[in-house]
Write a structure and sequence with these properties.
By secondary structure, this protein is mostly helical. The chain has one domain. 75% of the residues lie in helices and 0% in strands. Helix 3 crosses helix 13 and helix 6 packs antiparallel against helix 7. The radius of gyration is 21 Å and the shape is globular. It starts with 22 loop residues before the first helix and ends with a helix.
């Protein structure tokens, strides 16, 4: 599962380019990719019905309930991160939770889920009284902190596990190096923003000048606001600590849910393999191929778990059970949350 306090002039999000593919065509392409991923990556793994049935018979129901509860705590942790970054006094916590649920529902269903979900999340924040500039900067800061936490967890898992990988470890090493480079890149950008703000703003304005739908002024204001928000977080150690803990908690509790699902099938795994497999699977959800990485995540995580010694049936059922709580359940719940925000939000309560 899966914001700032500074005041800036309203900044409208960039409009979609007219050259983009129509929504219906993107939906068809995403559905085809998801269907192909499930057919070629997931379905072939249902090779032994008897083995899977025997694993289900050994399933621990209390541990399944615990896995579900951990997913709830994971979501609450992410909403806590939202509250820390955007400012606790600006929105009620239950409103933050509903916005995050609506974000998840769109992310898990729409083609190019991340971008569409970001637009929906932006509109919901604005509808709740957050200025456009604050909402845009808040999303950037929150995503940056969250992704940094995920990258560090994945690298920690890889460091604990690399010697135990039974298959060819080169793929994991390459993935680790890519994540490490990206992590260092983010750190470099943050460092430049904090120490050389004017120079970075000037670069952003130059780039924005060449992008018609963004513009020089908007680019400069966004970067200035982002730098200011980072500065506020950096100066407030307590707030920065809470943001880091909330971001890590979101991923740790989500990974914990996967571990508990495997334990419910009698196949718990070590911390290193857990974080490595979880990190690989979660990073794949960022690929704009299918909503929430549907089909791709399952098709990669199951073989990865088998590579760490988890029996085929337990790996398959564990990932599917975890994905039910992590991917499928937020869709209807998030739909209800979105409806509650649209029909019972501030605009209606003030009427």
């Amino acid at each position: 599962m899966n914001p700032a306090d500074d005041k800036t002039e309203p900044v409208t999000p960039p409009r979609a380019s007219r050259r983009h593919l129509p929504t219906w065509l993107r939906a068809v392409i995403a559905a085809l990719i998801a269907g192909a991923s499930i057919w070629f990556l997931v379905v072939p793994q249902f090779s032994s019905v008897e083995e899977s049935y025997a694993a289900i018979k050994r399933l621990s129901v209390p541990l399944v309930v615990a896995a579900f509860l951990l997913e709830i705590v994971s979501l609450l942790s992410y909403s806590a991160l939202t509250g820390v970054v955007i400012g606790w006094r600006r929105l009620r916590y239950r409103t933050l939770v509903r916005i995050d649920l609506a974000d998840l529902a769109v992310n898990h269903t729409a083609p190019g889920g991340g971008a569409v979900a970001g637009a929906v999340r932006f509109r919901l924040f604005v509808a709740e009284g957050i200025s456009e500039g604050d909402a845009a900067v808040a999303a950037t800061v929150e995503i940056s902190i969250s992704n940094l936490a995920l990258a560090m967890l994945f690298l920690a898992g890889l460091a604990l596990t690399i010697a135990r990988i039974q298959s060819d470890p080169r793929n994991y090493i390459v993935a680790g190096l890519v994540v490490l480079v990206l992590l260092l890149g983010v750190v470099a950008v943050v460092w430049a923003l904090m120490l050389h703000t004017a120079r970075v703003v000037a670069i952003a304005r130059t780039i924005g000048r060449r992008i018609p739908f963004l513009g020089e002024e908007r680019s400069g204001r966004l970067v200035e606001s982002f730098a200011k928000s980072l500065g506020v977080l950096g100066e407030d150690r307590r707030r920065l600590w809470l943001a880091a803990v909330s971001a890590a908690g979101n991923w740790v509790f989500d990974a914990g849910s996967l571990w508990v699902m495997l334990a419910a099938l009698g196949q718990p795994i070590g911390l290193g393999p857990l974080l490595t497999v979880y990190g690989v699977g979660t990073l794949l959800t960022f690929l704009p191929l299918t909503p929430g990485g549907l089909g791709i995540v399952e098709g990669v995580m199951v073989p990865a778990l088998i590579g760490f010694g988890v029996p085929h049936s337990a790996a398959l059922l564990g990932v599917i059970g975890w994905r039910f709580f992590e991917y499928w359940l937020p869709i209807p719940v998030g739909g209800l949350a979105y409806a509650s925000l649209r029909f019972f939000g501030p605009a209606h309560t003030k009427a």
